Amino acid sequence: DVKVTQSSRYLVKRTGEKVFLECVQDMDHENMFWYRQDPGLGLRLIYFSYDVKMKEKGDIPEGYSVSREKKERFSLILESASTNQTSMYLCASQIGGQETQYFGPGTRLLVL
Amino acid sequence: GENVEQHPSTLSVQEGDSAVIKCTYSDSASNYFPWYKQELGKRPQLIIDIRSNVGEKKDQRIAVTLNKTAKHFSLHITETQPEDSAVYFCAAGNTNAGKSTFGDGTTLTVKP
Predict the structure, then answer these.
(1) What digits encode the pLDDT tens for the residues A15-45?
(2) Are strands A43-49 and B62-67 parallel, antiparallel or unpaired?
(3) pLDDT, tens digit, 9 for 90 and up, residues B55-81
(4) Which of B98, B101, B102 sits opposite A50 (nearest CB)?
(5) B104–A40: do the CB atoms touch at under 8 Å?
(6) Would you call B83 helix, strand, or coil by DSSP?
(7) Which residues contact A25 (CB under 8 A, 6 or more apart)?
(8) Hey, what's the torsion of the CAs at B43, B86, B37, A56, to 10 degrees?
(9) Whole-angstrom Cα distance, residue A86 to residue B44?
């Protein structure tokens, strides 16, 4: 069974702090994704990666960066957190382009 | 890029009735159309998907139809049950792009 885990379920940070969100998958999947989920706005893609050290911008990359140094781990970085980045962040992994995305449990981030 | 519109945003039905959720997409290159269900407080999970070479797919009480000419696809749930209450997301994906674009979600409530 595919397992996708995220480092924190809840996180409270202050404006201007650097924030790291980590995602780990155990199924040797090629593709990994970071989304943010806000009420009424669905799942919006921030960044995705289809291989180690490879990354592609999604629909809303501004204010975020990512790192994928190992195949199983995909990190989302908020360089300087702002209140409008308060959201639920979901990580997902996928074996290939036409396959199921498996989601992590989500990290609810509050930026004060 | 791809744009996916999903309707309705909320849907309330009586137990035993059918529910239909519709999505349209803009990119004719999209060839993979998954549907995810997200129960309250849980992660999204795939419930059914369809590929562009198929017009309809059924799995017990759920079915998905795809009209490539009109660029729309629909989720049909028959004999709804209270446990079908959740947020449903459609998505349109492209093997070459390696990512999917999600709709904004439909909150389905099944009243006992």
Answers:
(1) 999 999 999 999 999 999 999 999 888 999 9
(2) unpaired
(3) 999 999 999 999 999 999 999 999 999
(4) B98
(5) yes
(6) helix
(7) A2, A3, A4, A5, A32, A72, A74, A93, A102
(8) -60
(9) 20
